[in-house]
Amino acid sequence: MNNTKWWQTAVIYQIYPRSYQDSDGDGIGDLRGIISRLDYLEQLGITAIWLSPVYKSPNDDNGYDISDYQDIMSEFGTMDDMDELIEQARLRNIRIIMDLVVNHTSDEHPWFIEAHKGKDNPYRDYYIWRDPVNGGVPNSLRSTFSGSAWELDEVSGQYFLHLFSRRQPDLNWENPKVRQEVWDMMNFWLDKGVGGFRMDVIDLVGKIPDQEITGNGPKLHEYLQEMNRETFGAHDVLTVGETWGATPEVAKLYSNPDRKELSMVFQFEHIGLDQQDGGEKWDLKPLDVSELKQVLAKWQTELGNEGWNSLFWNNHDLPRIVSRWGNDKQYRVQSAKMFAILLHLMKGTPYIYQGEELGMTNYPIQDISEAQDIEAINMYHERIGQGYAKEAIIQSINAKGRDNARTPMQWDTTRNAGFTTGEPWLPVHPNYKEINMEANLKDPDSVFHCYRKLIELRKNNPIVVWGEFELVTGVPDQVFMYYRRYEGHTWLVTANFSGEPITLELPELGQAGFIIGNYSRDHVDFKQLQLQPYEAFVVILA
Ligand SMILES: OC[C@H]1O[C@H](OC[C@H]2O[C@H](OC[C@H]3O[C@H](O)[C@H](O)[C@@H](O)[C@@H]3O)[C@H](O)[C@@H](O)[C@@H]2O)[C@H](O)[C@@H](O)[C@@H]1O
Hints:
By secondary structure, the chain is α/β, with parallel strands linked by helices. The chain has 15 helices and 21 strands.
């Protein structure tokens, strides 16, 4: 394949630096800590690291509120540490993907400090200001972090827009000076040799606040084409947009190579399947596996050659999949591997969120005082005010809250799981004596070794990267089966999504050679097959 891009054959690993490895005992992960774990990541076999924000920030939203895009958060280290991370990673053939958070800045960014000084300030138009309407907010736009998206500035009497916290004012992308500042900053990082950008809520930058249009505004793609032209277009990098509402049609607009925008997007359709229709993410409903099959199959088949899928179950905003849709008790190891096998055999670029490869689990809280995340804390207070029962809110936070996946990495059985010698900023999950990297490395049947083998399988078998996908229908709802076909070869992936054995009779498939699975088998006989709880395997049919 002449036009093959490195990111099409890649596996990306996401690091949430605050929780990865602390090197100086302050209880907060840092860049030198990450450098010290690069050999581990090389052993896993990943191609690139998506680094959640490491820029200077007052941490209202743990780094997603940036006060200087060209400086490093002091808790994380220095620019010299960052340069060393890029170089040390490069020596291991690992690229660094920066998190690009340009829908908004921190309110401590010098642009906002200036803009806030008054209507005549040259930076005023870097942000979105509106006069009051009928003595109140300009309209009913809401913040993702609860409440109105408009905050009154007492000094000027105008409101500014913040689609996230009030300390994350939205940038005005209609102002060409703002876009030029963003391009200059991106080129600064490209000159350092980074491997690309993960673009935070990039679907919001074309917003028209007065019409209450936030996602997919009319100028969005014009801006992204300009970005491509002015920054990374001439570089061999990966660009992935976080796009919450994307459909396959919309995803093609972003990632059709002819349009010169992005490499791929994160779509979240599968992630919303346990959310009540018309509700917020906190309004829970059970997952229907049939729906999951339909949604993932749709994304696998509909992009065709006009786009490229990103494959993920987890990230720093989502609960851990093994606790969410698997069984993190009796079948923790089996279900963690089941999710890994199912996803890593699909077409697209897989993303692994730190600790997923160890089978780490959600961390439940009893009381809101234990929460650190602004989204959960704001929602709690808003819903208490609306009369919700405390127990119901805590249940939603334990199911969907972001702190769940942000507890420190579990490296070994020493104090604080080897994450820090100090007091960790968020508690270490008490199960670290059982679930940790050291134990995973020692056990050839561990979740880690399953991920390592899946990455190797992708590297060595073009069918995993390029094969056509076809969903198998007519099987029990809880069984997710699909074919991959490439150059006369067919592989079949089978996964039992339940904690019960399931009998399958598919005599037409006969016997098949075993490639990888989470129970020990040397072949699979489809004439009479009993799938074990959460069993998943890949076989070769032809
Ligand atoms: O920089 C601010 C945050 O930006 C990223 O995440 C954005 C948020 O994504 C989700 O919320 C979006 C909502 O989208 C749709 O309305 C859905 O219907 C809702 O269910 C979604 O909630 C997450 O739920 C939020 O937690 C995210 O903030 C970064 O990845 C975040 O870390 C930043 O905080």
